[in-house]
Write a structure and sequence with these properties.
This protein has 498 residues and is of the alpha+beta class. It folds into 3 domains: 2-235, Aspartate Aminotransferase, domain 2 (3-Layer(aba) Sandwich); 237-360, Aspartate Aminotransferase, domain 1, CATH 3.90.1150; 378-494, no CATH class. Helices cover 30% and strands 14% of the residues. It has a 6-stranded mixed β-sheet, sandwiched between helices. A 4-stranded antiparallel β-sheet has the order 9-10-12-11. Strand 17 and strand 18 (477-481) form a beta hairpin. The chain starts with a helix and ends with a strand. Keywords: Transferase.
Length: 498
């Protein structure tokens, strides 16, 4: 909302030929400028993330300043960038980028260029320094920095005279030269008061000792200009960055391992734990050598069921960025994000990795299994196909708790403790572990007179992949394959006959 207010305030200071450049990431940063350009018929240009040089992963993308500079012309008026992508987790060298923007704009003869920086995903991990960066506007949210859900907007003081007041008309003459002109109404005082503990907390974890409580700190007006405070904060964020690097390294080493690469896991963003890599890590799961694509929702559901840790899926309001990825992913479902901060531990990362492996369901072979068998054929007339498929189409994780699904399964399979299966029925084999099929329902029918054998997928919590075979009476041998990660996948693949 703050950037929307800012865009409205800048609107009166725009020319007909002005151009706007955005990164097109989080919509809170890109949206206000896109709407501003549309309202005024201005040209809008995108600084897109591009594939990192030397990477074979098409999703390993980052923002390269060399693709930004060609977008700058003599008409460039506003450049809205991010200090860190909430998807890619890559830190932008804001100071260097701003310096190059201003140099290129001067070279092109641009009359006035203002730069806005989105620091929401940056602020929890690195110290912001708007003066050193030489930016005109910067915004971040306190809920990302261990505070209440309220945001803050920095404006360079020299920009204020040219901004249109958003406050009540009768107050405008009183506030034209101060930041209140960007406030369309009164603030919620309880929220600003709630952020006062953030500075105390950050100072309390600084390697440099000093006062931390409100009582021992200097008055609020002088705290932020106090060199000692800045030194201690710099030490805090340096320590945070060093520690978070260990978390990033552990997680990325696993996510980029050969095992997970074969499974189809692809990092979205930088794949290495470099100094510019924050612990915001996104990935997709595509078709791999040892398994099929998995939706982000299905991965996250496994974590939610555990109840002691949380990861999320979707586009995280960076719709344009996710939609621009190639090969295409489901913009609403296909991306999974893991967000770590300095109070997470290596042990928690290891627990996360363990659950992630369970969610991804990598194929593996278990020891010998107890025999079980199909107890007779199914009469098609009495048990129509529609009824057999009704329950598996639901999001069922445990058949024991769902009577309808249990009835369907028991109507087809009789899980027996018998030591030996009957003749011409289901038995385990030592065949090589198959690839997990992508579909949640893969049916093949082999009719024998008035009966047929049908394989059905249902959501059953399982940790094994093993093939089993059966033979219809006077019919072909089939292969049924079971998959992992809470899914029982059945496919009827003929080994002989038809």
């Amino acid at each position: 909302m703050l950037l929307e207010n800012l865009a409205r305030a800048i609107e009166g200071d725009l020319g007909d030929e002005d151009e706007i450049i955005v990164t097109g990431e989080h919509e809170a940063n890109a949206g206000p400028w896109k709407k501003l350009a549309k309202r005024n018929g201005l040209e809008l240009r995108y600084w897109h993330a591009t594939t990192i040089e030397g990477s074979s992963n098409p999703y390993a993308v980052a923002h390269d300043v060399n693709t930004l500079l060609p977008l700058i012309t003599e008409n460039t008026r506003i450049v809205a960038i991010t200090a860190c992508s909430n998807i890619l987790g890559s830190v932008v060298d804001v100071k260097s980028v701003v310096k190059q923007i201003r140099a290129k704009a001067a070279e092109k003869g641009a009359k006035k260029v203002e730069i806005s920086v989105d620091c929401v995903a940056y602020a929890p991990h690195r110290k912001m320094d708007v003066r050193d960066w030489d930016v005109d506007y910067a915004v971040f949210s306190f809920y990302k920095v261990y505070g209440p859900h309220i945001a803050a907007l920095y404006t360079r003081f020299s920009t204020l005279p040219n901004l249109t007041p958003l406050t009540h008309h009768f107050l405008s003459p009183l506030v034209d030269k101060i930041s209140y002109k960007l406030m369309p109404g009164g603030p919620g005082y309880e929220l600003p008061y709630g952020v006062t503990g953030v500075l105390e907390y950050l100072l309390s974890i600084s390697p440099i000792s000093g006062p931390t409580s409100s009582a021992s700190l200097k008055d609020t007006a002088s705290i932020y200009s106090d060199p000692e405070t800045h030194t201690r904060l710099e030490a805090t964020f340096a320590a945070i960055a060093r520690y978070e690097h260990t978390l990033v390294k552990r997680l990325l080493e696993h996510l980029t391992s050969e095992k997970l690469a074969k499974r189809g896991v692809r990092i979205v963003g930088e794949e290495t734990a470099s100094e510019r890599r924050e612990p915001t890590i996104s990935f997709v799961v595509v078709n791999g050598e040892t398994g099929s694509a998995i939706s982000g929702k299905d991965i996250v559901k496994v974590f939610d069921a555990k109840g002691n840790m949380g990861i999320r899926y979707g586009n995280f309001f960076a719709y344009t960025l996710v939609d621009s990825l190639e090969p295409k992913v489901d913009v609403n479902d296909g991306l999974v994000r893991i967000s770590l901060v300095h109070y997470n531990t290596i042990e928690e990362v290891d627990q996360l990795i363990e659950v992630l492996d369970e969610a991804l369901g990598p194929p593996h072979i278990l020891p010998a299994l107890r025999p079980f068998f199909i107890a007779g054929q199914i009469n098609v007339k009495k048990f129509p196909l529609e009824k057999r498929l009704r329950a598996p189409q639901q999001d069922i994780e445990d058949t024991d708790g769902h009577r309808r699904n249990r009835a369907n399964i028991h109507a087809i399979f009789d899980v027996s403790n018998a030591s030996d299966p009957p003749d011409n029925t289901l038995s385990t084999t030592s065949e090589t572990t198959p690839e997990i099929p992508r579909s949640r329902r893969n049916i093949r029918e082999s009719k024998t007179g008035n009966t047929e054998t049908v394989s059905i997928l249902t959501m059953i919590r399982s940790t094994c992949v093993h093939p089993i075979t059966f033979k219809d009476e006077d019919g072909p041998i089939h292969d049924i394959r079971y998959a992992t990660s809470g899914l029982l996948v059945s496919t009827a693949t003929p080994l002989s006959g038809d």
